[in-house]
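Incident log, structure service

09:12 report received: a user says their structure output differs between two submissions of the same chain.
09:20 pulled the input from the user's history:
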Amino acid sequence: MTATSRVLVVDDSAFMRKILCDLIALDPQFVVIGTANNGREAIEAVRVNQPDVITMDLEMPEMNGLEALERIMRIHPTPIIMLSSISDDGTRETIRALQNGAFDFIRKPSGPNSPDIQMVGEQLLEKLRIAVLTKRHSSLYQQVSAPAPRKPAVPKQKESFTFDTAAMPKSSRRSDTANSSKETYDQAAMNETAASSSKQVEPSKPATTQGLNKSAAKKEKLQPAPEQTVQSDSDVPAKNTSKPAPNRNFRHLVAIGTSTGGPRALHEVITALPADFPAPVLVVQHMPPKFTHSLAQRLDSFSALHVTEAVQGERVFAGVVYIAPGGFHMELAKDRDGYCIKLSDEAPRGGHRPSVDTMFESCAAFTELRRHSVIMTGMGSDGMKGMRVMNDSGAESAIAEAEESCVVYGMPRSAIEAGVAKSVVNLRQIATAITQAVRK
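09:34 re-ran on a clean worker, output below:
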């Protein structure tokens, strides 16, 4: 018999608390042991009730979800699933929460009678199940201790991109313990995205059009970043130096794949790479459309390297990190002018689009480059097959994140157990391992 898991629901709206409680009650594995109106009440509820998992709204009075998240992770580390609104601010704050220790996020339901409520409920219950399993087996939640010192946050700045409300979050199959339901659940999420897109005034554009429309902005982005003014000790970039000009000449290529826990892991790795890093870095993070844009912007604010959401057909340079946009596969390609990015909206692979396997396999073709693959925290086995293909083509490095630093030890474990990972490295040492490999 499955033990009952205790859930704390935190939201300033009584209406939304009722919706969430009703959705959670659909699964007898869970019981809501309390609700809270704001972050302060949430902290007290955690002290008293010690829930197994928490759902947390981002925007609340008195104390918002971000501050409550950070305090809870210090006093009683608990998997926290953030409720994200579909807005520019919502995506940015969600990325901050994930980098500061949130387990995962779901899109906030719009109401009890909205057409997406069933899918949001399924996503919520699936992520709750994975979070509870992770808490039972992960050392990250086994002891009460202060988290590792985090880099200061970035000051909020206005961003000029347009948010496409048709881009609804897809489910992320993020625990190797739930493979039996993974593909069915992901397909349902994709069906929801397609259905909701047909109801929007301006549907998502294909990859080729997206690339053309953003090309001018990307050219500007690849110029050295200006120094930023420090506004506060708690909300400023860790690095304020101008970035080096991208370099078209390189002999090495790094490819990284990750899923649940990835935003925090990527922050740890990407921000630790030096400004003179002599290779491009391709990244697949399982994440819905638009959230990858905010992820790239936030990482770019902290990193000595340029970090950008990849665009169809753009040139690939050393010293630039390219993050696959949510909803598109990303591949490395080559034409007469050199290496470039190829995006496609082909069918999801293993329930994922973007797919780590797809990216890795595209890199395998370029044997003239010294290639390095990295698989970090995440559910399932995406990346394992692609890492094998890269190894077979002569790739030099194949790094899997060590179990003790993973939020979800699924993707790295698949690579290790399949024998395709050449080295197993703790998260804090991955950037050093990559840097040493590309400087050989």
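09:41 both user submissions now match this output. Likely a transient worker issue. Closing.
09:42 reviewer note: Residues 143-240 have pLDDT under 50 and may be disordered. The CA atoms of residues 216 and 222 lie 10 Å apart.
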